[in-house]
């Protein structure tokens, strides 16, 4: 018997397991995949740590969270500065004075702001969808070249069908600053994310290759309290229907080059390129290896059995999740946490904040 059974070894489950052990309690983690770490998991090839499930850049303004992760692993000083490729034209992200100069030749913030404000006026009243929201924030030129087709590839839907809130945080800067995030702290674990995960799981028993929803009868009585981090609809055997997600497919290529694209993350913002972005992994850790690995990331419609990445938080799915949440609240010895169980996208620092808050309640 254990004090806690944790279903899932993503960041939520690993941080929680560490805190449970630190408080003198016992726990068992079971993990459906054949490895721990969830989507943070990295594969090492020729000294390069490949982000197997897409690029992850840790960033936070919460000093408590920053100090928390740094007790397990050193972080480097990587700054996320992606580049957008629109039909061979390259633009700096986030949208800043470098972007505006390339688009319009503007050299002062006043010129750029005047240009954007003039284009924003085509939207009247509260934006009703993502397209109107984007134009209301950055105008028509940036929307058409750098947002519209990229977003439609990413979500598999017209921007007119997507809710406005998806891009309410769209960063726009009237400075020559290519740092994508505004957060005070940012970086990549030196040696890759596996070092963070293994440090969190030091002394924790983990069973991999175990799907709780298949082997529930064998595990459900191993602890008086279960923390479930998998898809909430799967937990209830989809009895109310399937929640919708977007999924991702990856194609990784090896190149006999020191440097292939010159940046870790390049977004392809036009339909003429079928993938949404390419990731050159070595740049996350300033690698100097004689070879390089580049992953092309394709956004796909999710079907049961595939990995679920991004919840489709439209009205239909939000209402369905609320019904599942009502079922979850009736559980006596099961707590639901994390992006899949809560049908919400979380940044990594938000996951840690959430777990530390939960620990204060249950331990």
From TrEMBL:
Cofactor(s) annotated in UniProt: FAD
Domain UDP-galactopyranose mutase C-terminal, chain residue ranges per copy: 145-345
Coiled coil, from the record: none
Keyword set, alphabetical order: FAD, Flavoprotein, Isomerase
GO molecular function, one term: UDP-galactopyranose mutase activity
One protein family per Pfam: NAD_binding_8
Protein's UniProt keywords contain Chloroplast: no
Family: Belongs to the UDP-galactopyranose/dTDP-fucopyranose mutase family.
NCBIfam families: UDP-GALP_mutase
Protein known as: UDP-galactopyranose mutase
